[in-house]
Amino acid sequence: MPHVKPLTIDNAPAKSQPILKAIEKKFGKSMNIFSTAAYQPDVLGGFTQINDGIGNDLPEKLRELAYFKSSQINDCDYCMHYHKQAAKQVGVSDEQLQTVENFQASDAFDEQEKAVLMYAEQLTKTATVDAAVVTKLKEFLNEKQLVSLAATVALANFTNRFNHGLDIQLP
After folding, report:
1. Which residue, 37, 76, 142, 170, could crosslink 160 as a Cys pair with Cβ 3.0–4.6 Å?
2. Mean pLDDT, the chain, integer
3. pLDDT at 30 over 90
């Protein structure tokens, strides 16, 4: 049972309503995480602005692998549900999704994907990343993409904790 009942567009604060309408248009439906964040329009707006920003520079497949890995570590079923779907849409295979927990031992991932997953794992588990992992990533990513990767992992951890803290449920 969620700790806070998700709002509908009609009963959300006026400042949240256009954001919720844009979310429905973008995703084809409302999602409880956004409908719950709508109680605080500035939180909802900031949340969606970061979400839109991380989609600008980092290749979609790498972004979804990082988001899914962080959510898997945090055991966030809500985020894993939606990001599993998003990952498949951008080319992540079923085998990759099934072996992401043990990615280092899997042949399903290339060197770049493994570096992204290692970054997501370290940042999620310890809030730090080994310099060697960053050096490896810089073989594939520019600094702008590295910022987007850090923001992706940070957002995943934020949404995981937001969902757990409010017991947000899948519809």
Report:
1. 76
2. 96
3. no
DSSP structure string for 21-45: HHHHHHHSS--HHHHHHTTSHHHHH
Summarize pLDDT for 89-115 with one digit per residue, the tens: 999 999 999 999 999 999 999 999 999
Angle, vertex CA 159, rays to CA 74 and CA 133, nearest 5: 60
Burial class (CB in 10 A: 0-12, 13-18, 19+), 45: middle
3-state secondary structure 124-146: HHHCCCCHHHHHHHCCCCCHHHH
Question: Does the model's pTM come out above 0.90?
Answer: yes
Closest CA to 101 of 134, 125, 68, 79: 68
At residue 2, the 3 state secondary structure works out as coil
Q: Positive or negative CA dihedral for 95, 96, 99, 102?
A: positive
d(CA 153, CA 64): 10
- Listed residue (8, 165, 7, 20) closest to 78, CA to CA: 165
**116-143 tens-digit pLDDT:** 999 999 999 999 999 999 999 999 999 9
